[in-house]
């Protein structure tokens, strides 16, 4: 077991750090304050391959391991978790399209998405189907050589500003459950699609979030991903990687906050000396660093399990998502506390990192649902010997 990164992995991480410092850091606060979706910056990330990190090569992607992708996402999230999180969602949707789309659809959309020229949204959640995603009601009816879509989606990142939707809809009857769900590629400007108002959110303000309504939207039959009835399985495979991605964004946010706290402790003076000399604050910094390293290694372990196709990869992804998003938020919160009143004002990045990191405990499956996934596996007879 080797915990050291290769030279190539370090180079990827360094490229991502330089990109984040040059393209994200000067603008992240403004994007957050003004609700700007930085499509130009995302396209520049695409020029470096960051919009198709693990998408298949035949779709224009780099086909990197998920572990390598975490290195890129972490460096960017240390500067701007909101924009980075959208890039991770785009990567997930692009991978799904590249893996399961028909050759014609893949050949059209793959190069556009992996370069960042066009952007994708992932559409699973509905107003009445959140944690219970298998209860979704959006329908797709096959009529001749077309599917007709009706229904709605909620809390969709990028909605209204992206170019293609990776959509889960019911093709079976109302009682068909997860087995009656199929996945589709839907051009975002298709007739019959309408977008709701831009949601006003606590964080993630550099990416728009809207509801999407489908009223007799027609798409060609070859826009089906995989086969009918495989949509929920495809969605969950996407979310395994998505959970690692969002956990990585929490690790990145925590690293950015830790960096700021460490520097602030040297700069800030109280009672005639640097606050770095106060043992109580030293201990706080030590705990933050320890939790951050533990979270990072948990995420990398889960990524390695997913790359290896391990039987219990989904369990490890759930563990990593639960642990890293909780620990990451706690580290950012402690870093804000170390800054005192300065941490609460927008001149410093702490309050933005905190607001952006908070939603990570909710999306890609709430942390309560992560516990359900983990507990179900741990109650199986072999689990104590296998999950270690």
Structure commentary:
With 388 residues, the protein is of the alpha+beta class. The protein folds into three domains: 7-119, Orthogonal Bundle (Butyryl-Coa Dehydrogenase, subunit A, domain 1), CATH 1.10.540.10; 121-228, Butyryl-CoA Dehydrogenase, subunit A, domain 2; 232-385, Butyryl-CoA Dehydrogenase, subunit A, domain 3 (Up-down Bundle), CATH 1.20.140.10. The chain contains twelve helices and ten strands. Strands 1-4-5-8 form a four-stranded mixed sheet. The protein has a four-stranded antiparallel sheet with strand order 2-3-7-6, with no helix packed on it. It has a two-stranded antiparallel sheet with strand order 9-10. Helix 4 crosses helix 7, helix 5 runs antiparallel to helix 7 and helix 7 (231-267) packs parallel to helix 9. The chain is globular and about 80 Å long. The two termini are 14 Å apart. The mean pLDDT is 97.
Task: Give a concise summary.
The protein has 388 residues and is of the alpha+beta class. 51% of the residues lie in helices and 14% in strands.
Succession of helices and strands: HHHHHHEEEEEEEEHEEHHHHH
Query: Roughly what is the average pLDDT, rounded to an integer?
Result: 97
Name the shape in a single word: globular
- Structural category is alpha+beta
In the CATH hierarchy, what is the superfamily of the largest domain?
Butyryl-CoA Dehydrogenase, subunit A, domain 3
Q: Give the C-alpha Rg.
A: 21 Å
CATH domain fold name of the largest domain: Butyryl-CoA Dehydrogenase, subunit A, domain 3
CATH domain class of the largest domain: Mainly Alpha
Q: Alpha-carbon distance between the termini?
A: 14 Å
Give the total of domains.
3
Major sheet description = 4 strands, mixed
Instruction: Provide the CATH architecture of the largest domain.
Output: Up-down Bundle
Q: What is the number of helical segments per DSSP (H or I, 4+ residues)?
A: 12
Uncertain residue ranges: none
Oligomer: single chain
Percent strand: 5-15%
The strand count comes to 10
Indicate the percent of residues in helices.
Answer: 40-55%
Lateral strand order in the biggest sheet: 1-4-5-8
Protein name: Acyl-CoA dehydrogenase
Family: Belongs to the acyl-CoA dehydrogenase family.
Domain Acyl-CoA dehydrogenase/oxidase C-terminal: 229-379
Cofactor: FAD
